[in-house]
Amino acid sequence: MGSTYGKIFKIATFGESHGAGIGVIIEGCPAGIAFDSDFIQSELTRRKPGQSRITTQRKEADEFEVLSGVFEGKTTGTPIALIIRNEDQRSKDYSHIAAQYRPSHADYTYQVKYGVRDYRGGGRSSARETAARVAAGALAKLLLMEMGVSIQAYVSQVGRLKLAKTYAELDLTETENNAVRCPDPVMAEQMFEYIDSVRKQGDSVGGVVSCVIKGAPAGWGEPVFDKLHAELGKAMLSINAVKGFEYGSGFEGVSLLGSQHNDAFYIDDNQNIHTRTNHSGGIQGGISNGEDIYFNVAFKPVATIMQDQESIDQNGDIAVVQGKGRHDPCVVPRAVPIVEGMAALVLADFYLRNKSSRI
Amino acid sequence: MGSTYGKIFKIATFGESHGAGIGVIIEGCPAGIAFDSDFIQSELTRRKPGQSRITTQRKEADEFEVLSGVFEGKTTGTPIALIIRNEDQRSKDYSHIAAQYRPSHADYTYQVKYGVRDYRGGGRSSARETAARVAAGALAKLLLMEMGVSIQAYVSQVGRLKLAKTYAELDLTETENNAVRCPDPVMAEQMFEYIDSVRKQGDSVGGVVSCVIKGAPAGWGEPVFDKLHAELGKAMLSINAVKGFEYGSGFEGVSLLGSQHNDAFYIDDNQNIHTRTNHSGGIQGGISNGEDIYFNVAFKPVATIMQDQESIDQNGDIAVVQGKGRHDPCVVPRAVPIVEGMAALVLADFYLRNKSSRI
Amino acid sequence: MGSTYGKIFKIATFGESHGAGIGVIIEGCPAGIAFDSDFIQSELTRRKPGQSRITTQRKEADEFEVLSGVFEGKTTGTPIALIIRNEDQRSKDYSHIAAQYRPSHADYTYQVKYGVRDYRGGGRSSARETAARVAAGALAKLLLMEMGVSIQAYVSQVGRLKLAKTYAELDLTETENNAVRCPDPVMAEQMFEYIDSVRKQGDSVGGVVSCVIKGAPAGWGEPVFDKLHAELGKAMLSINAVKGFEYGSGFEGVSLLGSQHNDAFYIDDNQNIHTRTNHSGGIQGGISNGEDIYFNVAFKPVATIMQDQESIDQNGDIAVVQGKGRHDPCVVPRAVPIVEGMAALVLADFYLRNKSSRI
Amino acid sequence: MGSTYGKIFKIATFGESHGAGIGVIIEGCPAGIAFDSDFIQSELTRRKPGQSRITTQRKEADEFEVLSGVFEGKTTGTPIALIIRNEDQRSKDYSHIAAQYRPSHADYTYQVKYGVRDYRGGGRSSARETAARVAAGALAKLLLMEMGVSIQAYVSQVGRLKLAKTYAELDLTETENNAVRCPDPVMAEQMFEYIDSVRKQGDSVGGVVSCVIKGAPAGWGEPVFDKLHAELGKAMLSINAVKGFEYGSGFEGVSLLGSQHNDAFYIDDNQNIHTRTNHSGGIQGGISNGEDIYFNVAFKPVATIMQDQESIDQNGDIAVVQGKGRHDPCVVPRAVPIVEGMAALVLADFYLRNKSSRI
Q1: What is the DSSP letter of C328?
Q2: Which of C180, D44, D147, D240 is deepest in the core (most CB within 10 A)?
Q3: Which chain D residues are within 8 Å of B357, Cβ to Cβ?
């Protein structure tokens, strides 16, 4: 249980890091959407390993195959199955950790829960699973584009290097122009150097991905448990290594007074309703209000480091976990398309759910 | 859609702020739990309005009635319906805002979504709905107590007044000894005075509720979307006025290196597996690891303030929203049992879900 | 688990035969439907006990109260809670069977499953629960009426007394004119006399309810598991005492050849597509095709009879179950509105689900 | 929506008749089950086309590949993805019906619902999808075998040729010894000849599959909507060509009196509780009572026949649907493993759901 997401636009992912492959079934995608394979592949390419020297050197083309649900270039309303074969598996890399519990990995908890685990590269707990999310999220993006909705994420913090500017003050078209995916070129350069220095130490560091959604109409989100921000939060927190989520004014907002925080309504020259400020982050009462939706996602330093660490093994004996294998010294550059993809899945689902709100 | 929570231990809440009443159906509660009405009532009393001069003066006894699912003092395995009648409705208080969109409330978004709304006191979007959650959460707590799990929340920040100590450094038994529900008596006093001064200004202020869960065994939580912290996050973000959620090292943790952040495993004298640090917040790979689970929840300043605010009405005309009615100048003291209740619902559900993880 | 039905138009029922009351929460009902209380009450009245001497003599007004989700006469899109208090409980009638397992009742299976049970009148397993379904079904009917869909059920068989005519050959407006709810007055009279004779013997007898749905457009139903007839089947089989379901040509159809059974398409003078025959029962590939939907539901003789029966009790001792209490000698007359209500719930759900089939 | 089945042991199928392939993701399968590939393949072989001259001559090896969820021969608790490539697609066979609505097929209803359809061999509406169910059902069987539960289906009727004996009077080990899968060799021979004569006429005929489940303990099934027989009914009705479902005494039982129909309880020499008769079909109040569970499933004559039929096309023009292609003159022989597989999926799910019925 737990490998499905969504109520109407619903995905079920499968696959382990070093099994035959990974993939996703997308159910509930409306019929008639132009299935743009190139776009989906390009999203996967944004996430794939080996993009620069600050990402893992695992080699995966991450090419996907469509098994169903698409006919003559359009979605048919039936389940769409996408699979991605694992190529560079190097399972032998992991034999030395078969019985070990790597610190801050899921080895121990999977073992306790299931009594058995695929120890190769973290098995199901590997972030490799997120490729399936990105593929499905790309399809959700195609649906949202038809609604005029765009989603843009970027790296806003690495370690203590933090962008001072808000999304509105940045040129987000710069995001994809550097390996860090930070839209401020100067900061991007600093972040790159910092990550690279951490990498050389055989260490890892955390970061923050920020995301802004433009063009979502008012009315998306379902009270009271499935609030738009609650589902965004769950979706983001379900991504590997995420430790926190905040939207709109977030944790900073707690220090404000209500008179400062409230977003006054007004009508613009086109008779459209807007708010003068947007501490609400585009969401009021769990439902989008037509303003930009924005949020931050905190990622911890990844647990795999190239240093020896003391731990224990399945027998309860003391063990030294050796720093071997390939890893990302900082996940946030590759997390950008994952954050976008999950956001797209949340919104596509709420778009469809909202169709039933009125007779 | 959206008024249910949980997969096995599942609740469905109903009710509006000024309708006949509110309530909850709890489905999937195992048979045989001693139904302790006094405990459930005492949890509702912790949340009810009118507790002190820093909470809303609305008068509600918040007494609940059991309609089903309990027989001879025990749960029977069938749905448990609990209802709470609304008493102090004063609907006339709200006639002046029938057509207005109050800033940072859900008036506008509900109107757009549904084309109709119960404008009295926010209707369904009112935090009054959380009483139903607290009642259901109390039952979940009774179930968890039988498993040796305890949940304790407390106020750790009001405005800029923030506890420097971690939960481990505090005496949480002090929490219920003051109106703010802050376990540090000195800070509690300062917070009380600050909230009271904000109240006198007719304003409101935000805060943070922290929560710690002790005694949860390893193995709860479901990869990959229904990670324990992802569900905790969703549950917390679904509470009115919440803007952020972080667990374990949270947003602070992004600045650490992996070598600092990783929690080393060891075996204690009783042959139990533990970690030397707990940046993971008791959760690894989305599954509890047996350590304390802890997290923070950010609440914005409530939108209702006793000041006039400019806005618009349903006709698109400019309107002045008057500062009338009753409200909480700061919600966090009353949010403490809500956070606990929602955490209990999440854990009870995962306890039951985990029963199927092995044959 | 198991007390909810529906994916979008979703109901959760609660309550026991002799508890405080029963009820239902309806979630996902679109906003803006005129909430016709009189109609809902009239549907409950069709199901209520004590309608004639061939139904149980339990006295229940079965008046319902609305707790939420309706404002100024319209549904608001939020959960609608309806409760019905139990009045004529006579719990003492049941003390003699507290430890007994009544033959073909659910006493034994509930005891094994839950380890505890409310033995009064069958508790949760009582058909009294169906009143909640009828109330919710009445609201679903109101929604369907706005779509031009009508649902009519009637008794087509009691014991071996079976109508030879199909629904198309009957005048269904006669259905409510007799206590049996058989649209053929002559057969109705015979059925009444037969049921009454069975009643006098202290026995019970089974029957069949047939149902026809007119006006449903093509396109409702979801492949491949949630076929329209599969959900209708589940919904009907979930009604107390039901043993079988068939639609269209049903069990008889297995003897036909494909060349006889296939329904040829044609276009009528209004350029509408129809089929010349309707062995398909208005459903092809699990999706409505615009023709009449019709099906039969088989009800066993109810288990409660006024005769002594040998059985055992919870201790494993032999026991004589005495023929006491009140019961229906034949459930089908009162089952007619239940069948209609459940059919309405199925269709309302598929109407809403179908909104997402295309972009 | 609609391509998933189950609450805990949950499957999602995908794939079209003439697409790249079909498959299934099984989620919620407990960890630690020995994954017997040979058994799963043997179940698929029982369903595959081309078994004898009375089944379709389409050639498909129906070999499956495991993509995930199995490690070192055991299930790991994570999603298990199985895929089956389509081989003998002959899509050109279908170009002549691209625009036609074949009588009693799903061409028209899919077109209306989705506005687009994969017309090749019925696309998603093809019974080819059931291979995925059989594969998943085989895994459910492996789980149930560990619980001592066996499931046996057989053909009990073809056209008007109907077995007079009940399952208890038959030697079910004979079932797999003939092409019809009827356990009575004499009747099997008659059925075979009859189907073959129908085939030679280019026609088709219906039939009934009966099924018996032995060894299921008391307690499986969830009141009130998810009764064991309601889910069995839905599962069976979701199989292509099914028109009816009955369990226990079924439609025949309606003619009985309660005094005849009730199943008296007794205790056997081993102190086990049983019923003297089993009109209840092993289910009381929607929950298994430990007796044999048995039911019948009615299949219509398949819609594809080798005769010309008048119909219309997508333009509303009159069209002659020609009798081409490959088809089963009678589906029930190949439906036997499908019925068993779906029954296994229902039971496996209830086994897991029942784990939460008590604390």
Answers
A1: -
A2: C180
A3: 30-31, 77
Tokens standing for residue C6 = 């529906």
Structural tokens at position D208: 């009934």
D78 with B143: Cβ contact below 8 A: no
**CB pairs below 8 Å between C and D: how many?**
378
Q: Has domain A4-356 been given CATH number 3.60.150.10? A: yes
- Nearest C-alpha of chain D: how many angstroms from A175? 35
CATH of segment(s) C4-354: 3.60.150.10
Strands D64-66 and D80-85: antiparallel
> For strand D80-85 and strand D21-27, is the pairing parallel, antiparallel, or unpaired?
antiparallel
User: In the numeric block, which tokens belong to residue D83?
Assistant: 């895929």
CB contact under 8 A, D31 and A114: yes
Taking CB atoms and an 8 Å limit, are A21 and D78 in contact across chains? no
Q: Which chain C residues are closer than 8 Å to A30 by Cβ?
A: 356-359
CB contact under 8 A, D21 and A74: no
Reading the block at residue B313, the tokens are 């009405």
**Percent of chain A whose pLDDT exceeds 70:** 98
Interface confidence: ipTM more than 0.95:
yes
What residues contact residue D180 under an 8 Å CB cut-off, 6+ apart? D54, D155, D158, D188, D191, D192, D195, D332, D333
pLDDT of B84-141, one tens digit each? Answer: 999 866 656 677 778 999 999 999 999 999 999 999 989 999 999 999 999 999 999 9
Residues in chain A: 359
What is the arrangement of strands in the sheet containing B242-247, beginning at the earlier edge strand? A161-162, A150-158, A207-214, A293-299, A242-247, B242-247, B293-299, B207-214, B150-158, B161-162
Sequence-ordered alpha helix ranges (H) in chain C = 37-47, 107-114, 130-146, 185-200, 228-237, 258-261, 332-354
Helix H or strand E segment including B342? helix B332-354
Residues A130 and B223: their CA atoms lie apart, in Å, by: 12
Say if residue A77's pLDDT is above 70: yes
CB B173 within 8 A of CB B154: no
Could you state, in order of their start, the residue ranges of all structural domains in chain A? Answer: 4-356
Model pLDDT, residue C90: 61
**Nearest CB to D300: which of C208, C261, C354?**
C261
Which residues of chain A lie closer than 8 angstroms to D65, CB-CB?
20
Element (H, E) at A84: strand A80-85
CB contact under 8 A, A81 and D14: yes
- List the binding residues of A for NADP(+): 47, 53
- DSSP assignment of B176-244 equals GGSTT--SSHHHHHHHHHHHHHHHHTT--B-EEEEEEEE-PPTT-S-SSSS-HHHHHHHHHHTSTTEEE
Beta bridge partners of C275: C265
CB pair distance less than 8 Å for D116 and A77: yes
Round to whole Å and give the CA distance between D329 and D139.
29
Residue (of D200, D124, B75, D256) closest to C299 by Cα position = D256
Residues in CB range of A112: below 8 A, 6 or more apart? B218, B219, B287, B289
Q: Which residues in chain B have Cβ-Cβ distances shorter than 8 Å to A207?
A: 254
Query: For chain B, which chains pass the contact test of at least 3 CB pairs under 8 Å?
Result: A, C, D
Residue (of A77, A136, A356) closest to A226 by Cα position: A356
Closest of A311, A254, A347 to residue A5, by C-alpha: A347
Neighbours of chain A (3+ CB pairs under 8 A): B, C, D
**Beta partners for residue B211, in sequence order:** B153, B295
List A10's β-bridge partners, or say none. A27
D21-27 β-sheet, strand order: D4-5, D10-15, D21-27, D80-85, D64-66
Q: pLDDT tens, A120-162?
A: 989 999 999 999 999 999 999 999 999 999 999 999 999 999 9
